[in-house]
Task: inverse folding
């Protein structure tokens, strides 16, 4: 966990968290700063800023990219029946003439709008960088002296390791006046660190003014496919005695994460549930459906007990073997993601030509325990791209 407004607090605490995908209660040790941030009413605010409105899903239409932040002053008169309790501050920029047509009342917040990510946008994992913009508009009647823009990816179920807090893997950069700046993380993570990523790019906005900032992201090949939600929100903190205060509701843009380079993995005949002390065989066929050779392709094998309150599964309690020319050969195990036992298949790695397939014969044996509740997950990996998983 990166340093936040709370400073570098060395003390860690253990919090209970629900293993929603697998059903097991899991204790995770996280820095105290993250725990405090989560507990402060969704990153706090109180009198420091307007109360946050619910997150709204929004995908903005495509707009022409900009190479640098631009301040665009506009004006929107208030309805004649509305009289502010205190006179608004003078805007920082010259505004245009008052339009003759009626103008709808403005929301009392700083609104974020995604540009360049139209509905149906796709992002290829392991592909080139994807550029987009976020427009920040001051829809209040007062000058906002500090608008810190924060953009991040929300929880992503497409990550193969989707236990506790599934996060997308990749990078996010922001275009500042001095050039591109790599942000600490693309994902929000479990705390509020993402709220502070806009501190270095904070700016002032007069009533009705807007500023557009350019971003670009790149997804790692290790991500699975799914729907990625990007969130944009403005903050005005932190200050010495307050937490981050939201200046408006979060805006969310959805993009489809695709992978045109992923291998395939198919169980050839579904194996029966293994019996304790006995071995059961199954065959797994991996393939390369792409038009280019995969330099490194291999099967993937995992086993876990997803039942709540189940005893941890030991590395030596499940034995995987592969059949080769000399007979059966035992494969080593290691601790995997979130309680999985992962089979090390590095020795089975080999190139896979376009359209080629390779079949493996495995057998699995449990040692010192039954098979009730065990879940086996098999698949393939090709040049770091994971296939869709099969379970038995």
Result:
């Amino acid at each position: 966990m990166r340093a936040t407004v709370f400073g570098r607090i060395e003390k860690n605490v253990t919090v209970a968290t629900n293993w929603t995908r697998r059903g097991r209660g899991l204790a995770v040790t996280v820095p105290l700063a993250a725990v405090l941030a989560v507990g402060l009413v969704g990153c706090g605010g109180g009198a420091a800023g307007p109360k946050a409105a619910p997150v709204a899903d929004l995908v903005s239409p495509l707009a022409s990219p900009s190479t640098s932040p631009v301040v665009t002053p506009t004006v929107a008169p208030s309805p004649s029946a509305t009289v502010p309790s205190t006179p608004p501050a003078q805007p920082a920029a010259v505004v245009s003439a008052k339009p003759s047509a009626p103008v709808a009342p403005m929301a009392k917040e700083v609104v974020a709008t995604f540009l360049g990510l139209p509905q149906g946008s796709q992002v290829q994992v392991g592909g080139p960088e994807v550029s987009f913009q976020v427009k920040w508009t001051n829809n209040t009647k007062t000058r906002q002296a500090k608008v810190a823009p924060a953009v991040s990816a929300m929880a992503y179920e497409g990550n193969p390791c989707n236990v506790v807090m599934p996060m997308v893997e990749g990078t996010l950069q922001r275009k500042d006046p001095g050039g591109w700046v790599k942000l600490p993380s693309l994902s929000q993570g479990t705390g509020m660190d993402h709220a502070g990523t806009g501190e270095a790019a904070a700016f002032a906005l007069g009533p009705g003014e807007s500023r557009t900032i350019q971003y670009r992201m790149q997804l790692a090949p290790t991500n699975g496919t799914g729907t990625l939600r990007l969130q944009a929100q403005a903050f005005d903190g932190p200050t010495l005695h307050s937490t981050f205060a939201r200046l408006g509701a979060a805006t969310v843009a959805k993009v489809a994460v695709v992978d045109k380079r992923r291998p395939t993995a198919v169980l050839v005949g579904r194996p029966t549930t293994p019996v304790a002390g006995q071995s059961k065989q199954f065959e797994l066929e991996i393939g390369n459906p792409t038009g280019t050779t995969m330099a490194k392709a291999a099967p993937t094998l995992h086993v876990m007990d997803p039942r709540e309150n189940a005893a941890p599964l030991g590395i030596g309690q499940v034995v995987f073997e592969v059949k080769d020319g000399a007979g059966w050969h035992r494969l080593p195990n290691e601790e995997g993601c979130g309680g999985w036992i992962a089979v090390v298949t590095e020795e089975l790695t080999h190139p896979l030509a376009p359209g080629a397939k390779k079949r493996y014969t495995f057998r699995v044996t449990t040692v010192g325990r039954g098979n009730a509740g065990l879940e086996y997950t098999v698949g393939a990996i090709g040049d770091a791209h994971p296939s869709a998983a099969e379970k038995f």
User: Anything to note?
Assistant: Residues 1-42, 44-107 have pLDDT under 50 and may be disordered. The chain has one helix and 26 strands. The domain at 49-74+106-258 is CATH 2.60.40.10 (Immunoglobulin-like).
